[in-house]
């Protein structure tokens, strides 16, 4: 004998060959709203911020002045040729201009900018230090492109700038808020290649290693307040002098 409850359960069960009822379409609604509590709704996922994606560089006067022929340099097979002596140049005009060209990734603009910056930092001497406030915005714009090639080149230039004089490190401490936020995002962006060999470290193209080297150089040359300011903006940084 089948009791009444079991008989009712059998009636509620669908037949084996019966077609299932189609669910109503799910309506996507924004999160943290009253609509999220309604029936037949799905909460939309949070939007992506694209923090590490490349951003198009801003337009600068570097290309315009290059096409107009304002630079005292010429392109050769071995590199660039200076038409005048480097110590005789107006560093307040030319050095920030070439620093603006660090965001370039196409030939011949990147060749002119990178080689010119290297030569001016090598032979500039005492003329480099007064130009530091004018170099902060070009360096910041180069970091904000999020282009790994541009970031690596800019980090090498920044290391060269720190080695030009003992005063440069302390002069850059007030500008850490403009320079270090992007480095904090890319500090741990290493390549996880397992048992394979990562040749980017040998070529100096590993972003994470270059950032650590630059931060350590900033701490060594920045004086007493360097580590506190670096730690405030890059919390995962460990001191190379205190440890």
Secondary structure: number of strands: 4
- Based on Cα principal axes, name the global outline: globular
* Structural class determined from secondary elements: mainly alpha
Strand proportion, as a percent range, falls in: under 5%
Rounded to the nearest angstrom, the distance between the terminal CA atoms is 83 Å
Helix and strand pattern: HEEHEEHHHHHHHHH
What's the total helix number? 11
Largest sheet: 2 strands, parallel
Low-confidence parts: none
What's the average pLDDT? 83
Radius of gyration: 29 Å
Share in helix: 40-55%
Strand order of the largest sheet: 1-2
Secondary structure topology:
Layout: H1 4-12, E1 27-29, E2 41-43, H2 62-68, E3 73-75, E4 80-82, H3 91-100, H4 109-123, H5 132-144, H6 148-164, H7 166-172, H8 176-186, H9 200-203, H10 207-221, H11 226-233
Parallel strand pairs: 1-2
Antiparallel strand pairs: 3-4
Helix pairs in contact: 3-4, 3-5, 4-6, 5-8, 6-7, 6-10, 7-10
Short description:
The protein is mainly alpha-helical and 243 residues long. It has helices at residues 4-12, 62-68, 91-100, 109-123, 132-144, 148-164, 166-172, 176-186, 200-203, 207-221, 226-233, and strands spanning 27-29, 41-43, 73-75, 80-82.
């Amino acid at each position: 004998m089948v009791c009444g409850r079991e008989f009712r359960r059998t009636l509620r069960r669908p037949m084996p060959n019966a077609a299932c009822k189609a669910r109503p379409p799910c309506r996507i609604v924004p999160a943290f709203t009253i609509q999220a509590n309604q029936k037949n709704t799905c909460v939309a996922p949070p939007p992506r911020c694209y923090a590490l994606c490349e951003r198009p560089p801003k337009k600068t006067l570097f290309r315009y002045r290059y096409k107009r022929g304002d630079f005292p340099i010429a392109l050769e097979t071995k590199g660039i040729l200076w038409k005048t002596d480097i110590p005789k140049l107006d560093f307040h005009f030319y050095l920030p201009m070439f620093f603006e060209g660090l965001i370039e990734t196409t030939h011949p603009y990147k060749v002119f900018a990178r080689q010119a910056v290297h030569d001016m930092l090598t032979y500039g001497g005492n003329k480099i230090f007064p130009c530091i406030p004018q170099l902060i915005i070009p360096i910041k714009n180069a970091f904000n492109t999020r282009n790994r090639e541009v970031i690596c080149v800019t980090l090498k230039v920044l290391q060269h700038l720190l080695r030009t004089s003992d005063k440069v490190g302390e002069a850059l401490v007030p500008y850490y808020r403009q320079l270090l936020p992007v480095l904090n995002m890319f500090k741990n962006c290493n390549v996880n290649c397992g048992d394979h060999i990562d040749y980017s470290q040998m070529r100096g193209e590993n972003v994470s290693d270059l950032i650590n080297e630059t931060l350590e150089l900033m701490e060594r040359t920045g004086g007493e307040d360097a580590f506190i300011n670096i730690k405030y903006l890059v919390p995962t940084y460990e001191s190379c002098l205190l440890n």
